[in-house]
Structures are given as C-alpha cells and as structure tokens.
Amino acid sequence: MGNLRIGQIVEAALWITLVIFLFAYSFEFDREIEIYKYGAAAWPRAILLLIFIAALGQLLQQWYRGDEASSDMMEKAAEDGAHEAAEEAHHNTLAWYLYTFAISVIPFAYILVPDWIAAAMGLEKPGLHVAKLAVAALLLVLFIILVRGNQLGGMIALPVLFAAMMQDLGFYALAPFFIMAVMYLMGERRFGRMLIISAGIYAVLLALFVSVLYVGLPTGNISPFYEFGTGMVTILQ
C-alpha cells in the first residue's frame, strides 16, 4: 500500500463505506417536490459526494506523500501533547478504529433491524412499532455501554442516532436526552448543572421554533411519544 498506514486505510474505508450506505438509503426518501426540481435526495447526495471526494483525496495524498503530508499537523499537535495523548490512549490503532466503527453502526442498526424483524415475522404496523421500541431500547443500552470506553465514537454517532430515531420517537421526547448526552460526552459530570442547562436549551428551542416560527418539529409516530409530542405542540401554540 505504498506509504499508507493501516490506520489511514481503515479511516478511509470507514468514510467510504458510510457514504455508500447512506447513498443507497437515500433512495428510500427520493421523491419529487414542487419547490425543488432535483428532488428531496439531491442535497444529501451532494454532501455525500463531497465526503467521498474528501476521503478519497486524503487517502491519495497520504499514498503519494506518506507521513510528510501530515507532518506539519503532527508537529503542531505534539506542541501541546495532543499526539502523545492519542498514542497513550491507543487512538491510532486498528482496534480503536473498529471500536469507533461499531459505535457508528448503531444508528443504522435502528434504521434497518426493525424492518428486517417485521418482514421476517410478517408484522403489521403495530407490530413494527413494538419492534422499533424494543430495538431502540437494546441499542440505547449498547450505545451507553460502548461510549464509556470511546467518547469520541459516541460524539460521532450520537447526532446520527438522534436523527434516525427522531421520526419515530419525536423531537419533543428525544431532545432533552440528546442535549444531556452531548454534555456528558464533552466531559460534564455534574448532573444538576446538566439538567438545568438542558432544560434551558430545550425551552429556548421550543419557544423559538414552535411558538415564534411555527416550525413543525417531528412529533413521532409511535405511542406514547406521538401523544407527548402533539400535547407539547398544543400547549405551546
């Protein structure tokens, strides 16, 4: 592989695999819309193309120039001990990349696994909702366990997990937990402060989007999250 290290190959492979998966999934919501002639999937696919080009370009640069391509960045990192900290934490090993990849797969497991279960068992819509709730509970427990040993992987996967679950469970129910999870992954451990800050951010978001801008945030479509979301909309509007 020329000047490439195993970590560089794995990193590029993870990004390219993610792009391919998301591109294939984009056909699920590719619809014609009146206000944009290129369809609903055009912008997501454009962003995926940019990610693919960036990952491939970085890999080619590393292949042609080897460690010289990132030497300046590594020297700057060494000045404040960041590189040594990464070495000590084993953040440049194959095991760490695979660990991070395992966490990143969790949101896509939620997208795919309930549908597989419903198809295999011939479940109708109520049964699919039960399957989604069960899978969501299991994946959230797995996510909590895994991120305790890899908070960077948690920061990468958390927004995707939030977006994946929001259509079913709703913004109103998930947002407070998402805000607190972000603070936890960023190092905050004082529960009282986390609770106060998340409540404040949540209140501002609801007041701005629901009461002022009248933006329709996802209410969810699975009981009891749907009832909670619609109840919040009724109160705020």
Give an overview in words.
This protein has ten helices and no strands. Helix 1 (6-25) packs antiparallel against helix 2. The protein is mainly α and 237 residues long. 76% of the residues lie in helices and 0% in strands. The protein has two domains: 6-80; 94-236, no CATH class.
Describe, in short, the structure shown.
The chain is an all-alpha fold. It contains 10 helices and no strands. It is 76% helix and 0% strand.
- Report the count of strand segments: 0
Give the termini separation. Answer: 60 Å
Provide the helix percentage: over 70%
Q: Structural class of the secondary structure composition? A: mainly alpha
Number of DSSP helices?
Answer: 10
pLDDT averaged over residues: 80
What is the string of helix and strand elements? HHHHHHHHHH
State the domain count.
2
Strand content: under 5%
What can be said about the biggest beta sheet? none
Query: Could you list the spans in which at least 5 consecutive residues all have pLDDT below 50?
Result: 76-83
| Rg over C-alpha atoms, rounded to the nearest angstrom | 21 Å
Question: In one word, what is the shape?
Answer: globular
Task: List the main descriptive attributes of the protein structure presented here.
single chain; 237 residues; mainly alpha; 76% helix; globular
Describe how the helices and strands are arranged.
Layout: H1 6-25, H2 42-65, H3 71-79, H4 82-88, H5 94-121, H6 125-147, H7 151-169, H8 171-185, H9 191-212, H10 225-236
Helix pairs in contact: 1-2, 1-5, 5-6, 5-7, 6-7, 7-8, 8-9
